[in-house]
C-alpha cells in the first residue's frame, strides 16, 4: 500500500511498465469519450454486415461510451499483444497431400490464421495479464475500479486504440502501426480515475494502397474501412454457426480457420522491425499445443475421426474450440472440396454418417466438388453411399445439397 497517493502520471508510468513486463508491445492512454463511430456502427448493423453476430444489436447502447463497460470509466489503457508475423505457409505445402502414416494414408492441410499458431486461446493468455495490471492499479490507487477486456466487451477496440495513439485504422479495418504492422491483439484496461492521455493517432499511412481490398478472396470490403462480415472468411469459418453459403465456398480456398490475406498483403506487415518483434511475441504468447503441430497448417482428414469427447480433449484450450466440432468439420469438408482429390473421399464418406446435418451437408458438397474436378466418375462405393443417404436423409439442409445433382 503506498504511503501517499501517487500522481496520475506516476500511475500511468507504472501501468506502462507493468504492461511491457507482461509482454505487451504497445501501451497508450485514451480519455473515455463517447464513441465517434457509434452511428457508423448502427449503420453497419442495419446494413446486415454484422451477419449472425447479434451481440452488437443486443448490447448496442453499451457501445456509446466506455461507461457501458465500466460504470464511471474515465480513462482507457489500450494494449497490443503480438502474435507471429513470420513467413506464411510455404506455398508448396498449402493444401498438399503428404503421407502421414496414421492409418488414413492421407493428410491434406488447411491453412489457419496466424493468431492461432501458438495453439493457445488468446483470451486465456491475455486475461490473466490484464487481471494482474488491474490488481497493481488497485494497489496504487485503492479507490479506483479497473476492468480488463479483450474482445468480448461492447467496445470498439480499434477506435479507442487510435485515440490512445497506437496507430491508424487501415482500409482493411484493422489497427496498423508503422513499427508493429497489424499482427497483434488489442486489449484494454478501463479505469474510473483520470490518467494522462496520449496524443490520438491522426495520420493515415495507407495512402493510395488498396492491396487488402484487391486481395480479399471473397470481396468482403464494401468500401475502404467497411467490411461486410457476412462475406469474410474469418466470420464464415470461426463465427458462423450455419452452413457456408454455396456462393462463397470456393473462395474460401484452403482456409480452414480464419483468414490472414488482407494482412499478409499489407506492406506494413513486411517491415523487418516488425518481424523481430513478432519473433519475441510468438515466444511470449505461450505454448505449442497438440492442436497445432505445424504452424499455419492443420491436418484435415484426421478431424473426421474425432468424436465429441476426443474433439473436446484436443481442442478445448485452443482457439478452434470456438467453432466446436461441427464448425471445424464443416470447414474441413469445404477445404477438402476445394483442394482434395479421390484420396480424400474416405474422411468425407465418414462425414456422411455424422450426427450433425451441417457436417453431412458440407461433406456431400465436397464429394461432388471432387467428383466434378476428376476426369473419372466417383467410385461405386461413394456413389452408393450418396444414394443411401438420399434414401434415409430427413434434414432439408442435407437434401438440398443432394438434390441438384440427382438428375
Ligand atoms: C466482430 C469482430 C470481427 C468480425 C468483424 C470484423 C470487423 N472488421 O468488424 C470478423 C469475424 C469478420 C472478424 C475478423 C477478424 N478479426 Co476481429 N474482431 C471483431 C471484434 C470482436 C469487434 C469488431 C467491431 O467492433 N466491428 C464493428 C464494425 C462496425 O467495426 P469496423 O469494421 O471498425 O467499422 C467501423 C468502420 O467501418 C468505421 N468507418 C466507416 N467509414 C470509415 C472511414 C474511415 C476513414 C475510418 C477510419 C473508419 C470508418 O465506422 C465503423 C464504426 O467505427 C473486435 C474486438 C473489439 N471488441 O473491437 C475483433 C478484432 C477487430 N479482430 C481482430 C482480428 C485479429 C481479426 C482477424 C485478423 C482474425 C483472423 N485472422 O481471421 C480478422 C480480420 C478481418 C478484418 N479485416 O476485419 C483484432 C484486430 C487487431 C488489430 N490489429 O486491429 C480485434 C481487435 C480483436 C482483438 N482484441 O485483438 N473480427
Ligand atoms: S480476413 Fe480474409 S476474407 Fe476477411 S476481409 Fe480479410 S482477406 Fe477478406
Ligand atoms: S494493404 Fe494497403 S490499404 Fe490495406 S491496410 Fe495495408 S496499407 Fe492500408
From TrEMBL:
<dbReference type="InterPro" id="IPR017896">
    <property type="entry name" value="4Fe4S_Fe-S-bd"/>
</dbReference>
<feature type="domain" description="4Fe-4S ferredoxin-type">
    <location>
        <begin position="197"/>
        <end position="226"/>
    </location>
</feature>
<dbReference type="GO" id="GO:0051539">
    <property type="term" value="F:4 iron, 4 sulfur cluster binding"/>
</dbReference>
<dbReference type="InterPro" id="IPR013542">
    <property type="entry name" value="QueG_DUF1730"/>
</dbReference>
<dbReference type="GO" id="GO:0008616">
    <property type="term" value="P:tRNA queuosine(34) biosynthetic process"/>
</dbReference>
<keyword id="KW-0963">Cytoplasm</keyword>
<keyword id="KW-0479">Metal-binding</keyword>
<protein>
    <submittedName>
        <fullName>Epoxyqueuosine reductase</fullName>
        <ecNumber>1.1.-.-</ecNumber>
    </submittedName>
</protein>
<dbReference type="GO" id="GO:0052693">
    <property type="term" value="F:epoxyqueuosine reductase activity"/>
</dbReference>
<keyword id="KW-0004">4Fe-4S</keyword>
<dbReference type="InterPro" id="IPR011989">
    <property type="entry name" value="ARM-like"/>
</dbReference>
<keyword id="KW-0411">Iron-sulfur</keyword>
<dbReference type="GO" id="GO:0046872">
    <property type="term" value="F:metal ion binding"/>
</dbReference>
<dbReference type="InterPro" id="IPR017900">
    <property type="entry name" value="4Fe4S_Fe_S_CS"/>
</dbReference>
<keyword id="KW-0671">Queuosine biosynthesis</keyword>
<dbReference type="InterPro" id="IPR016024">
    <property type="entry name" value="ARM-type_fold"/>
</dbReference>
<dbReference type="Pfam" id="PF13484">
    <property type="entry name" value="Fer4_16"/>
</dbReference>
<keyword id="KW-0560">Oxidoreductase</keyword>
<dbReference type="Pfam" id="PF08331">
    <property type="entry name" value="QueG_DUF1730"/>
</dbReference>
<keyword id="KW-0819">tRNA processing</keyword>
<dbReference type="InterPro" id="IPR004453">
    <property type="entry name" value="QueG"/>
</dbReference>
<keyword id="KW-0408">Iron</keyword>
Amino acid at each position: 500500500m503506498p504511503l501517499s497517493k501517487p500522481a496520475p502520471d506516476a500511475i500511468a508510468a507504472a501501468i506502462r511498465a507493468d504492461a511491457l513486463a507482461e509482454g505487451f508491445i504497445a501501451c497508450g492512454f485514451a480519455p473515455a469519450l463517447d464513441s465517434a463511430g457509434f452511428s457508423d456502427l448502427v449503420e453497419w448493423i442495419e446494413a446486415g454486415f454484422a451477419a449472425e453476430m447479434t451481440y452488437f444489436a443486443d448490447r448496442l447502447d453499451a457501445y456509446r461510451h466506455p461507461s457501458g463497460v465500466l460504470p464511471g470509466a474515465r480513462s482507457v489503457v489500450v494494449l497490443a499483444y503480438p502474435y507471429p508475423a513470420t513467413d506464411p505457409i510455404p506455398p508448396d505445402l498449402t493444401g498438399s497431400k503428404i503421407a502421414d502414416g496414421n492409418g488414413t494414408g492421407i493428410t491434406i492441410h488447411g491453412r489457419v490464421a496466424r493468431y492461432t499458431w501458438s495453439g493457445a486461446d488468446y483470451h486465456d493468455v491475455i486475461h490473466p495479464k490484464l487481471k494482474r495490471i488491474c490488481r497493481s492499479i488497485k494497489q496504487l490507487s485503492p479507490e479506483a475500479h479497473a476492468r480488463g477486456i479483450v474482445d468480448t466487451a461492447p467496445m470498439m477496440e480499434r477506435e479507442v486504440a487510435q485515440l490512445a495513439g497506437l496507430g491508424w485504422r487501415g482500409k482493411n479495418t484493422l489497427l496498423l502501426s508503422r513499427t508493429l504492422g497489424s499482427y497483434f491483439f488489442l486489449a484494454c484496461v478501463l479505469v474510473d480515475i483520470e490518467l494522462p492521455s496520449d496524443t490520438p493517432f491522426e495520420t493515415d499511412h495507407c495512402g493510395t494502397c488498396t492491396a487488402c481490398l484487391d486481395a480479399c478472396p471473397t470481396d468482403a470490403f464494401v468500401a475502404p474501412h467497411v467490411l461486410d462480415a457476412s462475406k469474410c472468411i474469418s466470420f464464415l469459418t470461426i463465427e458462423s454457426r450455419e452452413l457456408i453459403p454455396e456462393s462463397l465456398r470456393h473462395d474460401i480456398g484452403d482456409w480452414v480457420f480464419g483468414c490472414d490475406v488482407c494482412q499478409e498483403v499489407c506492406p506494413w506487415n513486411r517491415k523487418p522491425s516488425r518481424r523481430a518483434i513478432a519473433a519475441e511475441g510468438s515466444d511470449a504468447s505461450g505454448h505449442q499445443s497438440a492442436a497445432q503441430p505445424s504452424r499455419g497448417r492443420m491436418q484435415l482428414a484426421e478431424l473426421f475421426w474425432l468424436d465429441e469427447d476426443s474433439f473436446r480433449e484436443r481442442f478445448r484450450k485452443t482457439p478452434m474450440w470456438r467453432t466446436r466440432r461441427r464448425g471445424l468439420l464443416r470447414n474441413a469438408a469445404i477445404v477438402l472440396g476445394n483442394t482434395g482429390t479421390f484420396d480424400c473421399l474416405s474422411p468425407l464418406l465418414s462425414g456422411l454418417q455424422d450426427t450433425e446435418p451441417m457436417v453431412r451437408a458440407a461433406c456431400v458438397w465436397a464429394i461432388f466438388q471432387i467428383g466434378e474436378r476428376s476426369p473419372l466418375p466417383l467410385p461405386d462405393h461413394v456413389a452408393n453411399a450418396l444414394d443411401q443417404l438420399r434414401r434415409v436423409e430427413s434434414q432439408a439442409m442435407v437434401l438440398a445439397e443432394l438434390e441438384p445433382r440427382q438428375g
